[in-house]
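notes to self, project folder thing:

trying the whole complex as one job this time. last attempt i did each chain seperately and stitching them together was a nightmare. two parts in total, labels are on each line so i dont mix them up again. if this works i'll redo the older ones the same way
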Amino acid sequence: MAWFKREKSSQEQRPKPKAGDRKVRTEGLWLKCEDCREIIWKKDLEANLNVCPKCGFHFRLDAVSRLKLLFDGEYEEFDRDLVSADPLEFVDSKPYKERLAKSREAARVNDAVISASGTLQGRKVNICSMAMQFIGGSMGCVVGEKITRAVERSLAAKIPLVIVSASGGARMQEGAVSLMQMAKVSAALMRLDEARIPYISVLTDPTTGGTTASFAMLGDLNIAEPNALIGFAGPRVIEQTIRQKLPEGFQRSEFLLKHGMLDAVVQRKDLKNSIAQALLFFCGPANPPA
Amino acid sequence: MANEQTPSAGGQLTPEQLAQKDPSWQRVLLARHPKRPYSLDYIERLFTDFREVHGDRSFADDPAIVCGMAFFDGQPVMVVGEQKGRDTKQRFHRNFGMPKPEGYRKAIRVMKMAAKFGRPVVTFMDTPGAYPGIDAEERGQAEAIAHNLREMARLTIPVVAVVIGEGGSGGALALGVGNHVYMMENAIYSVISPESCAAIIWRDSGKAELAAKALRITAADLHRLGLIDAIVPEPPGGAQEDWDEASRLLGETLRRALGELSRLPPGELVRQRYEKFRRMGNFFI
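result (full assembly):
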């Protein structure tokens, strides 16, 4: 007879907490750091830009918080209502249209990128901030179009562009339509390049697939947050192909920096300043709005 | 005696077996048919004096992409094609047609060289995808593809791109930013392989047949979605049945495309290519 074997019956006898009861528990107030395993008070984490106060581990940051972090204050959002028409009429475990509707509700964005304009340390910039919580931050026609329009706005107004990537890649549910967005956005960035307007790509956890293989790697500067997963193929695909375990730290920001794919790895608290410094170098002092 | 009803590896089915499959999956099997003509087979039949050029000038030469100077109807053309191997030894040599970053870098190097001397570019896409391996990641597979997408958009010469077999996602698109983009009748072009798609959706790569249908990967699908210009017909039964005829049909398309594009000035070529991709995917509610 095992001493510590829990009897099933005692578990079953314990009354299930009712939905109302759960709310009074401390659940959600604390969480464990994924890296150092320390217990962190959630408010502390949020006050610290979603970076572990103990070890500096960068938790993911949602698209809106990202914009708040980078802009000086108010910002104007563009193309908010652009919604995919489901060109493939794609159905997997559920219809893609349904998946879109559910994601819109759950993620509280209309697709996987927010396109906005505002000032960053007094300088007018366009920022596209990707929303990982919307179908894995994947790029379909809406993401492709919104980013392309942001590039065009940067071109027309001659203002720098920042794209903060957090994306699993092209959106499977839009098939080759998603694929072509890679070419569309990259071609638009060619025009920005020819016009000598700065584009800074910020790569955050995770940036993979078609997103990395298009705009995320095309910045005049490619800068990443610490320990972000960045790559073309996902780690699981590579493991399956080569049939061996991947080395520690493979496809992380520091790995890419070492292999020459990034200009810098920048802590979240320093990100805004870093971008501002780069833009100062590229464009000279910002003209404060009159 | 081998049972003729048993399909052998690599999609060699009898016509009867093939006919029973879903139409999209039929195309997948034909696009991957082991006897289908590959880039060098078309190059041999369509061009004269093909002179291969090698290397990306910074790391290596990638045998999964062949590049070379050649003449088409007597006119100089730069040819770039993804190349699969025919037998086991060749397949390993060509890495199953899966290019590494140095392959894409070689490709854009020669395309820029073509632009420098005002020569048009013809690209053939035929890959299961860009190689997903440790070395490819270390050397920036994503950067190499991204760079090609942007730089192809800048080329001041005519670019004609044809999916001749498997258009495997970004690995194919990295050669695909053309003024005119075509697909062979039995070619496929997809953002993800049907197997991987099925593995994600149903956690079962065996359901690839279903995924192939859902992903809309046939030439007709892409044409309907406005992502390619036209479909290049193949001989009855598929290109594997008659390489010469398949080449002739492809040659007709290339001739027409290069003829049309040769009349456009450099600036107009860049603009036309840009506008073409700019319009792709206008599917909004």
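what i see at first glance: Chain A has a mean pLDDT of 91.
need to look closer tmrw
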